[in-house]
Amino acid sequence: MFLKIRKVRPAIAILNAIFIALITSGARHYGDYGDRDNLLTTSEIAALFLAGFVISLTSWIIIFTSFDFRISYKRWRIVEAALRFLLITIVTAAVYILILNYYRPVMVEYKSKFEEWSVLCQWGYYRCLLINVFILIIKFSTDNNIAKREALLKNEILLKENIVAKYEALKQQVNPHFLFNSLNSLKSLIMVHPERSVDFVIRLSDVYRYLLKHGVNGTVTLREELEFLQSYIFLLERRYETNLSIEIELPEPYLSSVIPPVSLQILVENAVKHNVVSAAKPLNVRIGIREDFIHVENDLQPRYSVEKSEKIGLATLDYRYRLLSDKGVRIEKKEKKFSVLLPLIYEV
User: Fold this and answer.
1) Between these two residues, 170 and 337, which has the higher pLDDT value?
2) pTM value?
3) Core vs surface per residue 270-285: b (16+ CB within 10 A) or e
4) What number of other Cβ atoms are within 10 A of residue 213's Cβ?
5) Residues 295/289, Cβ–Cβ less than 8 Å
6) Beta-sheet pairing, 283-290 with 244-248
7) Helix or strand or coil: residue 286?
8) Is 109 or 67 the better-scoring residue by pLDDT?
């Protein structure tokens, strides 16, 4: 965007010079004379237009290269800027007066007020002062707008970096914790059902293969995420047996949509982590489609004591979805149900 502004800046400078030249010549033509005998001729108007155009374009170039309002101005810098502006005004006024003086014989012939040199100097200086103030205001407004855009861009970059950092922290939490619980489950499985331990190890390797392969990706297809989730659910069911029920109804047409990796795994893990899962209170988790969202719902039966959580899982998901689409994650909490809705995304 900034490159585009730089490309059109010469055209803006020329249009600004034409505008100021038209104003100065037009105002001079209609502003001071009520008597038709004293109206300026075409030659005088052309001289005033040419002088206004040259000096406006010169002032634009000098001011836009000499001032940068995106940096903070301290007291000594304000004094320096004021002196620089005064010097620019004096120099441009001198050039302006010399241009008008070149055409003064024509103007004198038509009873111009420039007949006296002192009047010409005074008129030229004040005219240049107004022109330079006008251009300086444009420069200040432009720099202020660019500074705001740069600040927004910097904030967006910082936000993305923050999201990546939170996601990495989340992975560092999930992986060792989940591995520890899985190894404990594997130990119990070997002791009770050694024949089923091989499948458990295969599924566990599938889970970590997915994390290593897609953990750094921005998105994966819902089909890929679902295949990973099936391996993850297999491990959970070996741990909780019939106390945990996870129902998945995701029609085929929706499987081509994309999703941030590990999104569904985070929601399933949160459901198991924060709710009671026992024979007396089995936990039911349902994953389906509702309108334009992936709907993940679980029974709300909170534990009395929950492991310490940094509470960044859902927040990180919401940030990542807002970067990928114009929708964020929706959370619905009822008396006995807790739902999270993930927007369906088809193009990134």
Assistant:
1) 337
2) 0.50
3) bbbebbebeeeebbeb
4) 13
5) yes
6) parallel
7) strand
8) 67
Q: Report DSSP letters for 218-234, one per residue.
A: S-EEHHHHHHHHHHHHH
**Cα distance between residue 138 and residue 132, in whole Å:** 10
- The helix or strand, by DSSP H or E, that contains position 7, with its residue range, turns out to be helix 2-31
The model's pLDDT over 143-195, given as tens digits with 9 standing for 90+, comes to 888 888 887 877 777 666 666 655 555 555 555 656 666 677 677 667 766 77
Specify the pLDDT at position 294: 94
Confidence at residue 11, expressed as pLDDT on a 0 to 100 scale: 78
Domain boundaries, the chain: 2-150, 193-343
pLDDT at 18: 79
- In the CATH hierarchy, which fold is given to the domain comprising 193-343? Heat Shock Protein 90 (3.30.565)
Whether the CB-CB separation of 203 and 234 falls below 8 Å is answered with yes
Structure-block tokens of residue 266: 């985070």
Please give the single-letter amino acid code of residue 63. I
Q: In what order do the strands lie in the sheet with 244-248?
A: 244-248, 283-290, 293-299, 337-343, 330-333
